[in-house]
Amino acid sequence: MSFPPGYVHEEANLQTNTVCRLHKSLYGLKQASQQWFSKFSTALLQEDDIIIASNNKEELDKLKCSLDNQFKLKDLGGLKYFLELEIARSARDIFINQRQYALKLLSNVGSLGCKPATTPMEVNLKLS
């Protein structure tokens, strides 16, 4: 590998066969895809969506700013629907259900007008 044009190193007498240690991966290298995966593996992805959750507003803003510098981001606000889950929040609670997904499944098999049946679980059971 040769140095990029204009690069000046502290040691001016570098030989032409000098080896460089990369601190960041470069596209086109064999390990570039692994480096990309390592960089983004802590984020939850679905297609082109990402969810970021934190209890620290300052750290959340720093992460969003950092990601925005590397990717084109669009903040859609609070999470409402993701991976077939509907998410609703109150000041103290988070509620998750799959009502829309269940309706979609019923519609796909032509059972939207079916009669409800009792479930083996207690209705409105509060999980802790």
Short description:
This protein has 128 residues and is an alpha+beta fold. The protein has a domain at 78-116. The chain contains three helices and five strands; from the N terminus they run αββαβββα.
Helix and strand element order:
HEEHEEEH
* Spatial strand sequence of the major β-sheet: 3-4-5
Mean pLDDT: 77
Rg estimate, integer Å:
25 Å
Helix coverage percent of residues? 25-40%
- Broad structural category: alpha+beta
Number of strands: 5
- Spans of at least 5 consecutive residues with low confidence: 42-46
What is the overall silhouette?
elongated
Number of helices: 3
What's the N-to-C terminus distance?
Answer: 58 Å
Strand content: 5-15%
Main β-sheet description = 3 strands, antiparallel
Protein name: Retrovirus-related Pol polyprotein from transposon TNT 1-94
Domain Reverse transcriptase Ty1/copia-type: 47-122
Secondary-structure map:
Elements: H1 32-40, E1 44-46, E2 49-51, H2 57-70, E3 81-82, E4 85-89, E5 94-97, H3 99-108
Antiparallel strand pairs: 1-2, 3-4, 4-5
What features would you describe in this structure?
- By secondary structure, the protein is an alpha+beta fold.
- It has a domain at 78-116.
- 26% of the residues lie in helices and 13% in strands.
- It is built from 3 helices and 5 strands.
- The strands form 2 sheets. The protein has a 3-stranded antiparallel sheet. A two-stranded antiparallel ribbon has the order 1-2.
- Residues 42-46 have low confidence and may be disordered.
